[in-house]
Amino acid sequence: MMSDKKKLDQNQQEKPMSLQAMSLLTGLIGGLVWSGIGYIFYYFNLTKLSPKIILEPIAVGAWKDGWLGVVIALTLYGILGMGLGFFYYAALKRFRSIYVAVGFGVALYAVVFVVLHPLFPSMPSILKLDLNTMLTSLCLYILFGTFVGFSISYEQSEIEDHKSPSKADLQES
User: Fold this and answer.
1) CA-CA distance, 168 to 173, in Å (whole number)?
2) Which residues cross the membrane (predicted)?
3) pTM for the complete prediction?
4) Distance (Å, rounded) from C-alpha 125 to C-alpha 115?
5) Mean pLDDT of the chain
């Protein structure tokens, strides 16, 4: 009896994650990883903008300058990444080009450094940023956009490829 149950369990395939859930997870991981790398870049003075800048409009107190500020900032980037991953899923998932994902990262950079600039009083305007900070930040946004965008587009194309009948199936009919 026990061996029959084992055989049945072995034959069952794991249900694949939905593309929406995968998009949220990809955004979370992208937000955590790339903001973590951004913090490392800040630590080694490759950029003058700390990832903790996200706490500026919402937090008061000295705690945000310590390790707790880093943890909460990285968590917020993960949550924002989830939202951005879902946005990419909703708006851009059908585009298979890596250039769309890179453009997504560049657009995010423009939104943060131009449109949302007034929310961050300690952040200099884009024209006053030093070259290292500007290029490092741009590269991080491009890498985030590419990671999230291309991952979601790739999964979308895989789903479409498995749903569409193959040429061999069409020739047999």
Assistant:
1) 9
2) 21-46, 66-91, 98-120, 132-154
3) 0.84
4) 11
5) 89
